[in-house]
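Quick start: load a record and inspect it. Here is Repressor LexA:
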Amino acid sequence: MSRDMSPRSAILTPRQWEVLRAVLRLEKQGGDSCLTASALAEDLGLARQNLRDHLLTLHGRGFLNYHARPRQVALLSLTPAARAALGAPAGFPLLGEVAAGLPALADGGVQERVTRLDDILPMREGDFLLRVRGESMLGLGIFPGDVVAIRPADVAQNGEVALVLIPGENAGTLKRWQQRGRAVTLHSENPAFEPMRFPVADVQVQGVLVGHIGLGGARRSARGRP
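Running the structure step on this input writes:
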């Protein structure tokens, strides 16, 4: 595989090239496990701290989307510059599924890549996509099988729809965020689902909703329900 030997890519070390190739390989493998620093370190046989130094360098040089935040699972993805350097297809990563019903693990394996999405959604580099499972957000027109665009964030404002991890479950779910003092209520957009209440310190915000694309077959069947 030929490399892009532009001045920016030429400054990478052999180990940094190896890290980028490993991220690309794990993206292609997909699967149910999140693409995390721990998984990448195990794949490469590197100590986590040594790998973290490489990840921060690659992020700083524009080759990797990597945001290390305490107590949160950091999703890794290649930037367009890295994909061009590796000769890989460009586009936004589609990262598995997110629950819009009962909490379920938010998968991190890249299933496919979608190009020119920024023509219809206000997406920017670092954003990612999730396919919805469940019916708790029907009131927003988000049906099972639809795709939501998420912008990485570690805080959410009241009224925003956020991707959060549920306490004690390592579970990702899409809910409307409402915080009062040290407590947060996660609201569904479906009266069949009760609000979920937690201490703010126990809930991890992973991102906020940018927009969504209605793709689900359930959308058509729902129109025929009484």
